[in-house]
Amino acid sequence: MSSLEVQDVNLDCSLSSYDYELPPGLIAQNPAVPRDSSKLLVVNSTETAKTIPPLHHIFRNLPELLKPGDLLVMNNTKVIPARLYGCKSTGGGVEVLLLEERRHNCWLALVKPGKRFKLGSEIIFTAGEAGEKKELRAVVVESDPKTGGRLLEFDLPAAVPLVQVLATFGKIPLPPYINASTAADEQYQTVYAQEEGAIAAPTAGLHFTPELLEKLRSCGINQAFITLHVGVGTFRPVEVEDVTTHAMHEEWIEVPADTVEQIRATQAAGGRIIAVGTTAVRALEGAAQLGDLQPFVGKTNLFIYPGYQWRVVEGLITNFHLPRSSLLMLVSALIGRERLLDLYQEAITSEYRFYSFGDAMVILPEGKSINL
Q1: Which of 180, 247, 253, 269 has the maximum number of C-beta atoms within 10 A of its C-beta?
Q2: DSSP type of residue 157
Q3: Distance between CA 53 and CA 42 in Å, rounded?
Q4: Any alpha helices (H) in 95-244, and if so which ranges?
Q5: Which of these, 341, 345, 347, 346, lies nearest to 359 by C-alpha position?
């Protein structure tokens, strides 16, 4: 390996190599209407964006870009109203972001202001108008050093799960960079959302409409589903310069047997596996870490960055991600870091909209770097 190649490998593992400058006006505050009218950057060449520019399409053109026999694998998780506002029993406002259920009605949560919440502290949440107010109480029972969060035990009857009352007390949590949105809650859910448990949407799926899904099926492009409940592992920032030392937080996944069967049948027939979103990538690749892809239910802390050896995924539909994020590193593992940053600059020049409510990119299998 030459000294130049060694330098490139080191840069791929350096956090500062995943920076780019984004004009604030390109951070989407609202989704495209209709959903499938968003822009779509198409990567269908193994050459760099500077040599062969990517194609610019509209998302609803996706059936023309894929092939009959391809399989789209989608994340059917559903965002829960995970942000709650309450007050301490001693007074003072509190903001809570639920992360995951550790045991029945005991949830790991980020709490603001967290440092003041010691074990035994009580939080009271209220909802409804005067005279019809409902109340929900939680007690801090443990701290979590890995996330800086707290475990909250909610005072509910044993037969009543917290998710059943969250619609009354909670709100759908939008990312902090979306601060001027008029979007309705359902616009932050995919049209195929089914399994409750996520605290953020699998945003690559937000571009699909029922009509587009039906058109894809009519073109012989099939669909299968996994579940990954998007949590802190997806959006937690990478804070170490050597990205190989970053520890991903675990997230719950399910790759069902029927999806595994669809993938095997697709591969046997010469079709391609296209993941819809980085969460679908992590679920599929996480379920294949012990060898061949197998049905799996459990947690994964898989961190994908350049040098990763792909086992299942051949193509990817994804939104545009934050600088220095683990998601940017995952996509770099598929097509190369420098090439991805070139593509991002192309998207910025073409005024694509970025992040959760933004536009999309499709990396077709012929665009995947063969040497990665």
Answers
A1: 253
A2: -
A3: 9
A4: 166-169, 210-218, 232-235
A5: 347
